[in-house]
Amino acid sequence: MKKNLEKLESVALPIFKKGHIPFIGEWMALPLIRLAGSQQTGDEIWTEIQYPVAHRMLEKCDAVLRIEGASKGADEDVRKALEMGLNVYYSLDEIPDENM
Description:
This protein is mainly alpha-helical. Helices cover 53% and strands 6% of the residues. It has one domain (2-94). The protein has helices at 2-9, 12-17, 25-36, 44-58, 72-83; strands at residues 63-65, 87-89. The longest helix has 15 residues, at 44-58. It starts with a helix and ends in an 11-residue tail after the last strand. The mean pLDDT is 93.
C-alpha cells in the first residue's frame, strides 16, 4: 500500500501546478481507518471506510486521473466516475491546464 500511495502522490504536485486541487482517497481514509481501530488492510473497519470515502469524494470531484497499475478499487472509481458523467484522464498530459 505504501508503494501505491507514493505512486499516487507522485502526480499530485503536477496536477496542482496545472491549477487543480489533487485529492487522494487515502489522504482522508487512512487517518479515519486508524482512528476507528483497524488492525490490518482489508479488515472489516478498513472495508467499512476505505471505499466509501473514495466514492463520497467522487461526488465532489470534477474529474479522475486513472494512473497505470492494477487496482480493483481504482477501476471501480473510474466506473462510478463515468457513470456520474465525470471526465476520466489516463495521463497527466490529458489534464487541462487551468493556470492560463
